[in-house]
Amino acid sequence: MDDLTLKRISSLISRHSGIHIRDQDYKSLADKVWRRASSLRLTSLADYHTYLLKELEQGPGPSVIPAAVASLASEWQELYSILTVNESYFFRDSNQFKLLSERILPDIISRKQAAAGPGVKPSLRIWSAGCSTGEELYSIAIALDELNFPWDQWDTLLIGTDISKTAVDSARLGLYGSWSFRQMPAGLQQKYFYAHHQVHQICDRLRQRVTFQGGNLLSDPCPNPAIGLGNVDLIFCRNVFIYLDNQSIGQIIQKFHRALGLQGYLFTGHTELYSQDTSQFKTLCFPESVVYQKQSGPRQAPPQPAQPATNPLAEPRRFAKRSGTDSERVSIPESPSSLKAKSPAQTGLRPQVRVAPSQTQTHNLEKALQEAEALLDQEIYSSAIHRAEAILKAHPRCDAARKIAARAYANTGHHEQAKQLCLQVIRRHPLSIEMHYLLAQIAEDQNDLDGAKVHLRKIIYLNAGFVKAYLDLASIYEREKQLDKTQKMRSHALMLLAKLPPDARLDHYSDTTVAQWQSHLTSKADY
After folding, report:
1. Cβ atoms within 10 Å of 354's Cβ, excluding its own
2. From 114, 330, 378, 474, which residue has the greatest number of CB atoms within 10 Å?
3. What is the pTM of this model?
4. 102 and 64 fall within a common domain
5. Which residues pair with residue 19 across a beta bridge?
6. Residues of the chain falling short of pLDDT 70
7. What is the predicted pLDDT for the residue at 333?
């Protein structure tokens, strides 16, 4: 009976918000709704289902619950606070923020300023849809400020909405622990935040420029002029669609299109709209990200993709860039020794003389790989892909080039191409931790948590000292509310970190030190 009721609750959640509960998540859902039912002093899931239904029909208030708890806030708000994952940090996905700072915001500002005319304040409307605890919207405000945006000369609205009341309340406070700054340049943190007891407070100058409020992307009206959500210049909706069913995503995309002004931009996660109909938008493909733009009439040329430049907002990439050791990069693997050679008579082919690569060939290959890696490090991903593919055309068994291409594809959101290249390498090198870890990162980015766990466990089997695998598993288990496994992974990670120098970094593209990781994990010990 409870299983059937649980499915009804799941269906109700999906209809109300679009949140899709996967079959493997039903146990976690059961734990959460029983917790909420108990807090309302209800004795069955059927009563809880009835309460949710009546609140939708009548608004917040008691139905089958005792009068003693009648003053509770909306149960839907309470439920969404435990269903949604409010994990964010400043300048998450530096590729997109680099593109935003160097191309998109300057384009919007110059275009709106030209359209306003003399003596008229130009307007700027930016919406962080699914804003979580506010880091994204504050990051956008900081990006604007770093461009010397003349706030007082513009009519601006920077608004964040989220279905979780708890997240919205936290965003309004603007208080953040050190973990929210793990990818933020120290100079920006010092410039825009000040210490407040044991946390950090966003400066009042920017805090007064943003606003937050509750919002349901599926059921709320959109456009909504009452709160300024009309003729919007820029919508950020990242890492939201991964929790929703396809039908709900399609409805929300249509709402976004109506809310955007002409030539307004939509940013999403890299692969979140790949299976959706986005034909009403113009798709702009930059090296850093795919962006969608509202068009009317003949298409206009998009801003040209940026060349690499020094950017104070840049942060380390999500996907590692280094393609392997020097020996891996120059090796040209021979045929597997386990294959028995056939004679010319058996094959019907003329005998061929195997010629070892000359010193010049090896030097040229090494130079080409170095050039491809340099393009990858400079985040010129399309060029890195072209260079790596040219190498593969000349050296089809050069796995170092495959690794470079795989990382470049992953960083541009082309996950299927990246996965195919990873698997090609793994077929010849089953012990390649590097490729297993990239596959784990891609799986997690696609919200395939089970797939990510498979690769991370395989990495631990191959190398029990690979601390990042434990850290990633802890993060996944925390998202799944498997607290025992979360603490177990954190304990393993702490043991490994204790063997490393405190100021060491776990990889060459991260600014987070061993000591910072230890502090973070220790603070989570009693979570």
Report:
1. 6
2. 474
3. 0.58
4. no
5. 244
6. 1, 59-73, 85-86, 274, 296-361, 363, 508-511, 525-527
7. 30
